[in-house]
Design brief:
The structure holds two protein chains of two kinds.
Chain A (H helix, E strand, L loop, with lengths): L3 H13 L8 H6 L6 H11 L11 H14 L13 H10 L5 E3 L5 H20 L8 H13 L6 H4 L2 H17 L2 H6 L31
Helix pairs in contact in A: 6-7, 7-9
Chain B lengths: L2 H6 L13 H14 L18 E7 L6 H9 L4 E4 L7 H4 L16 E4 L36 H5 L9 H15 L26 H13 L4 E2 L9 E3 L3 E3 L24 H7 L3 E3 L2 E8 L5 E8 L2 E12 L2 H11 L14 E4 L2 E5 L14 E3 L14 E6 L3 H12 L3 H8 L5 E8 L8 E8 L5 E6 L4 H21 L2 E6 L2 E5 L25 E3 L14 H19 L1
Parallel strand pairs in B: 1-2, 1-10, 2-7, 3-17, 10-20
Antiparallel strand pairs in B: 4-13, 5-6, 8-9, 9-10, 11-19, 12-15, 12-18, 13-14, 14-15, 16-17
Chain lengths: 217, 559
């Protein structure tokens, strides 16, 4: 039965399929005293990150990681300055950093990245007879989907679970992406501006510094 | 001679009368410290410990297991030393409202997660630093119910505790008052209480309002939850006034205003006030014994230097992974064969949905609403039960979980995350039975410190699977009734439990009902590793209650 409620619901889905927010919200807040010094330091460093030269991965492997990241987080809206997701991975591998656990089924992280990126390179060659970097976006996505589903060809994937490797890779790149102030602007997150606390907790109520959604049709 | 001193001669009343108002006292002290920082006790160089001094008690770990008993023992006049693997933070200065920057709060030495349902460690359940995991706990502090301790009696499975609710009740009462727990006037579930919570509940955030709406339609009773975060200023002995929660929603990445009752702003300053010596950055490597097998001291690394602290008694409070790991590495208290075994975790499946309403899930105490109507569900096809909890969520944690469970990437991933401000979650916290296939062992692989990594095997068994399915079904119904679309479940197990359990006999337990090791007369264990069963509630409050009880039982014997 068609009711006003379902119509409103349908309209919501249509409009809200992907809410958008104004640009510049987090950057503007970082310049205010609504953000603590420790918080500003963390976020501003990501905004101001200089061009990064890989220190752990060799040049070709690092470029492959960047190309994979560009498919997992395509940024056609930032053609000149995409959020770089590979530097934090390279730095972590260099320092031997850990998030406290790993799947026992996977080798240590350095080895897993070496094998996994090598596996993606080999699977691209097998599936399309070309280097991953030379493939079309659709072809790259087919290679990555095959790794994620555990169906990618290649010896590496006999030794190491592509499903688990892909999950770890995707989770790490996702965390790098949404830790970035521009990604936080994209989803309307301003939780970092918490010095005065939050006073409007009711549904649909906003504190004055929270950005309103823009309807984009 | 300065004039002020001359003026004092012959004056009956001192020129500076004793300030009575604690707030004024605190302000004056703060001003004095700012004028002369060298007087700040935190700025003083720590005296070098005397290597030959034998202290009454060494406590390893400063979380929910170690901190309360440390304070209790110090207040009884004992000479006590706490060894904490991590640093001492100044949350006001050091804590950022940024998930990545706060990663230093988690125990990030790598653990190996094996089995069919490998457990995530690090930020999921393991902390480091003065205050331990309470630095990042959600502050959700329901009491266990009386039948939680009696699964075997009621269902014929699992293991009963050698103590019960009646042994912990007075400690629950004491803790709720001491920590300043915010909660409802009349809590609807569990045994009748002697006291209400000392503070009113924290405000319901978006997720809590939605869960309340959905539950109302389904006839499920809800209540504002008990949270160890202050809904109003609260005076804390040894600290002064703690400020009220400002709804930052960042409990799991550290509270920077002291509103959350982590150990560093409650029991540890109290302990320090009574002379406890808390040593940060002190990682214990060895536990030394004499010919009779009694503990004589511990060896630890502090800032690259190897040190020894002799003691008459040792309290091991390092959590359900590091505690059994230390026992196994030192081949200590292993006669029962139970060290590292009986590893359990709480069933913790989360259900997420997208709502038309603006939710802004980063605001407010994350777990604002509770239901324990599912404590012993009538239609259950499993033993035990669970509680339901609304959940707010920080963006990086949420995105990471969505990536793992929904496997979204590319444009689809970015599009989904644009809904973040419309997302709300519910999760459960349920019992979990010990099983032979779930245990901790030492791996061949070494960590960065050169110590064998722990490998933890965990595979959910039939009971956990049935409970999770039951809960997921109810939570999906609640979210549908509340108006959610795009509902999905994130399978998850929370907390680490059971690897050095307490019991009546050294044949099948590591410690007795008072927390004392059956094999080693002067070794006590107090943390979630001594839990014989997981309980259907979050563990922090019960760990603290056990900690106070362990101290009292020890002091009774010492008298």
């Amino acid at each position: 039965m068609l009711t006003v409620g379902t119509l409103i619901g349908a309209a919501f889905l249509l409009l809200m399929a992907s809410p958008h927010y104004p640009e510049g919200t987090v950057r503007a807040l970082l310049a205010t005293d609504l953000v603590t010094d420790a918080t500003r330091d963390a976020l501003q460093a990501r905004l101001d990150a200089p061009v990064y030269e890989p220190q752990y991965l060799d040049g070709a492997t690092y470029e492959l990681l960047r190309a994979v990241a560009a498919r997992l987080f395509p940024q056609p809206d930032r053609p000149e300055n995409p959020i770089e997701l590979a530097p934090a991975v390279d730095k972590r591998l260099l320092e031997g950093g850990s998030d406290g656990w790993r799947y026992d089924a996977l080798p240590p992280d350095r080895e897993a990245y070496r094998m996994g990126l090598g596996g993606i390179r080999d699977s691209a060659e097998t599936m399309f007879g070309q280097k991953f970097l030379s493939l079309s976006d659709e072809q790259k996505d087919q290679v990555l989907a095959a790794v994620q589903q555990g169906t990618a060809p290649g010896d590496v994937w006999q030794e190491m679970s592509g499903v688990r490797f892909f999950e770890e890779l995707l989770a790490e790149l996702t965390e790098n992406y949404y830790a970035h102030p521009l990604a936080q602007e994209e989803i309307g997150y301003v939780g970092m501006a918490d010095v005065p606390g939050w006073h409007h907790l009711q549904l649909n109520e906003l504190d004055p510094r929270e950005p309103e959604e823009q309807v984009k049709l | 001679m300065p004039e002020e001193e001359v003026a004092e001669e012959g004056v009956l009343n001192p020129l500076q009368p004793e300030i009575q108002d604690p707030l004024l006292k605190e302000i004056i002290e703060e001003n004095d410290l700012q004028a002369d920082p060298s007087r700040d006790p935190l700025e003083q160089p720590a005296p070098l410990p005397d290597p030959d001094e034998v202290v009454d008690c060494v406590v390893i770990g400063t979380g929910a297991g170690g901190a309360p008993l440390l304070a209790r023992l110090a207040m009884a006049g004992l000479k006590v030393v706490a060894l904490e693997a991590g640093p001492w933070h100044d949350p006001r200065k050091d804590f950022a409202t940024d998930e990545k920057a706060q990663a230093f709060l988690f125990w990030n030495d790598e653990r190996l997660s094996a089995g069919e349902d490998p457990i995530a460690f690090g930020r999921n359940n393991s902390g480091i630093g003065v205050g331990g995991s309470t630095l990042h706990y959600t502050a959700y502090t329901p009491r266990a119910q009386d039948d939680d301790f009696r699964l075997q009696r009621d269902f014929g499975v699992g293991k009963d505790w050698p103590i019960g609710y009646e042994d912990l009740e007075a400690y629950y009462d004491e803790l709720e008052q001491f920590l300043g727990i915010s909660g409802p006037k009349n809590y609807p579930w569990g045994p009748t209480r002697k006291h209400s919570y000392p503070l009113a509940p924290l405000p319901l955030n978006g997720a809590a309002q939605l869960m309340q709406r959905g539950c109302e339609q389904l006839g499920i009773k809800t209540s504002p939850a008990a949270n160890a975060a202050l809904s109003a200023r609260y005076y804390q002995e040894g600290i002064g006034w703690r400020e009220a929660c400002t709804n930052r929603g960042f409990c799991q990445a550290g509270c920077n205003i002291g509103a959350k009752a982590s150990m560093d702003v409650t029991f540890l300053p109290l302990a320090a006030n009574y002379g406890a010596d808390i040593r940060p950055n002190s990682y214990v490597t060895e536990i030394e014994r004499d010919a009779s097998g009694a503990v004589t001291g511990v060896v630890y690394e502090q800032n690259g230097i190897t040190l020894r602290q002799k003691c008459r008694n040792l309290f091991l409070c390092a959590g359900a992974i590091e505690t059994p790991r230390l026992l196994l590495l030192n081949e200590l208290a292993l006669n029962s064969g139970q060290v590292g075994r009986n590893f359990t975790a709480h069933t913790g499946v989360q259900v997420w949905g997208t709502f038309p309403e603006d939710v802004r899930p980063y605001k407010g105490i994350p777990g604002a609403l509770i239901s324990e109507d599912t404590h012993r569900p009538k239609d259950a096809d499993f033993a035990g039960g669970y509680l339901l909890q609304s959940i707010g969520v920080m963006p990086v944690t949420f995105a990471s979980q969505a990536a793992r469970a929904r496997k979204l990437w590319g444009q689809a991933g970015r599009d989904y995350m644009r809904n973040y401000n419309h997302i709300a979650g519910i999760n459960i916290l349920g019992d979990c039975l010990p099983h032979d296939s779930n245990y901790l062992e030492l791996a061949e692989e070494k960590d960065a410190r050169g110590v064998a990594k722990p490998r933890i095997h965990f595979t959910a068994q039939e009971n956990e699977k049935r409970m999770t399915a039951h809960a997921e079904n109810i939570m999906r119904q609640i979210w549908e009734a509340a108006g959610a679309t795009d509902i999905w479940a994130f399978p998850r197990y929370a907390h680490t439990i059971g690897t050095a359990r307490m019991g009546h006999s050294g044949d099948d337990a590591v410690v007795d009902a008072d927390g004392r090791a059956f094999d080693v007369p002067n070794l006590y264990i107090c943390d979630n590793s001594v839990f014989p069963s997981a309980l259907s509630v979050n563990p922090a409050l019960t760990i603290m209650a056990l900690s106070l009880r362990t101290a009292d039982k020890f002091l009774e014997k010492a008298r």
